[in-house]
Each structure stands twice: as C-alpha cells, then as structure tokens.
Amino acid sequence: MSVKVKICGLTSVEDAKNVSEAGAEFAGMVVFFPKSKRNISLEKAAEIMAALSDNVKTCAVTVSPSKEQVRQINDAGFDYIQIHGRIDDDAYSAAELPIIKAFNVTDIAELDRYKSSEKVCGYVFDAAEYGSGKSFDWSLLDSIKRDGRMFILAGGLSPENVSEAVRRVHPDCVDVSSGVENDSGSGKNRQKIFSFVENARSV
Ligand SMILES: O=C(O)c1ccccc1N[C@@H]1O[C@H](COP(=O)(O)O)[C@@H](O)[C@H]1O
C-alpha cells in the first residue's frame, strides 16, 4: 500500500483546494499556539475544512492543550487531534477525538507511556523544534516496534527528500509543513504540494 500524505499548517481556503486536488489524505491546522506563524482561529479552521474534499481527514495540531481547549476542538469539526508536548490527565479525559501523539526527538523515550492509551491512534515523529522545517536523525526510529497504530514521519520533509525518507523509514504516512511553503515562507505552494505527494507515492 502506498504511503499516506499529511499536509500541515493550512492557513487559507486556497491551501485547502490545493491539498484536496493533490490527493493528500490528511490536512493539519495549528490552533491555540500563537507562537506559530501558522496559528489560526477555530473559525478560520472551519472555513478551511469546509473547502476540503470529503475524503481529506482533518487534524487540529496543538501543543500541551488545556482541558478547555480540547473541549473546543472536540466541537470544531476535526477528525483527529495531534498533541505535541504534554497531555494532562484532564485534557486526556476531555478528548473525544482520536489522538495522534507527536514526539519532538527529546521526548521519544516517552512513547511507551502512550502505547497503552486507548485514545491514541497514531504517533508523529518530528524534529526538536515545532514546524521548523528541520530534519532529525531517522536512525532514532529504527528500534521502535510498530504496534498497528499510524506511524507518521515529520520534520524537515520536502519534495526533494520525501522519497528517500519513505524508502529509509517505511512510515505509514509522511507529514510536511515548511517544505511545501512558498519561498517567502508564507502560505503553501501548489506546485510543491503536488510534487511532495507525487514523490512520496513514487516509492
Ligand atoms: O507548524 C507549526 O508551526 C507547528 C506548531 C506547533 C506544533 C507543531 C507544528 N508543526 C508540525 O510540525 C510537523 C513538521 O513540520 P515541518 O514540515 O518540519 O515544518 C508537522 O506535523 C507540523 O504540523
């Protein structure tokens, strides 16, 4: 089966159209994290989700969300919640969507804690800095036993290196944000999104 593709950090309706037309399976939107240049409101996320094809699954991308933020995300129309950083007990209890737990290199050792969490349906393995476009040492993933949950590779992927990443890591899904942005660093680039999807699937 070919690798799935997740395009993250959508900020506009135009991004949604490009992601849908390119045939990506997942679209991520950063919410409740104002430090990110890709952070958007739930209202904006609703507008973007309305413009996505029905077959594109959506994901709220968060960092250590509070219980109240998780509740708002439950009701906002996403299919998944991606959580970087901590998941407090309160936030975990409040989650009604399947959780994709993200690890940012230094916390990879915490993976075992989540392997028995019923609500966790997948893992994102990402570089140390959120949405930085930087890669990390993929050999850190070699010893991780696959457990049937989605194994998603992120961090510094691009149309240029995604084929190599798929061959080397064998992820279920590849996840990109910075690598498909315009050279100006703002907004996604249609041609790069299409090339990323094509190159990921070429393996
Ligand atoms: O994109 C962000 O600004 C961001 C903010 C907070 C948490 C995660 C964020 N990005 C996620 O990082 C990976 C990979 O990004 P990149 O391709 O290296 O730029 C992806 O899951 C983004 O959603």
TrEMBL record:
Single GO MF descriptor: phosphoribosylanthranilate isomerase activity
Catalytic EC class: isomerase
Catalyzed reactions: N-(5-phospho-beta-D-ribosyl)anthranilate = 1-(2-carboxyphenylamino)-1-deoxy-D-ribulose 5-phosphate
EC number assigned by the record: 5.3.1.24
Superkingdom of this protein's organism: Bacteria
Keyword ATP-binding among UniProt keywords: no
An example Gene Ontology biological process: L-tryptophan biosynthetic process
Record has Amino-acid biosynthesis as a keyword: yes
InterPro entries named in the record: Aldolase_TIM, PRAI_dom, RibuloseP-bd_barrel, TrpF_fam
Associated pathway: Amino-acid biosynthesis; L-tryptophan biosynthesis; L-tryptophan from chorismate: step 3/5
Domain N-(5'phosphoribosyl) anthranilate isomerase (PRAI) residues, every copy: 5-199
Keywords: Amino-acid biosynthesis, Aromatic amino acid biosynthesis, Isomerase, Tryptophan biosynthesis
HAMAP family, sorted: PRAI
Annotated family: Belongs to the TrpF family.
Protein name: N-(5'-phosphoribosyl)anthranilate isomerase
Taxonomic lineage from the root: Bacteria, Bacillati, Bacillota, Clostridia, Eubacteriales
This protein's encoding gene: trpF
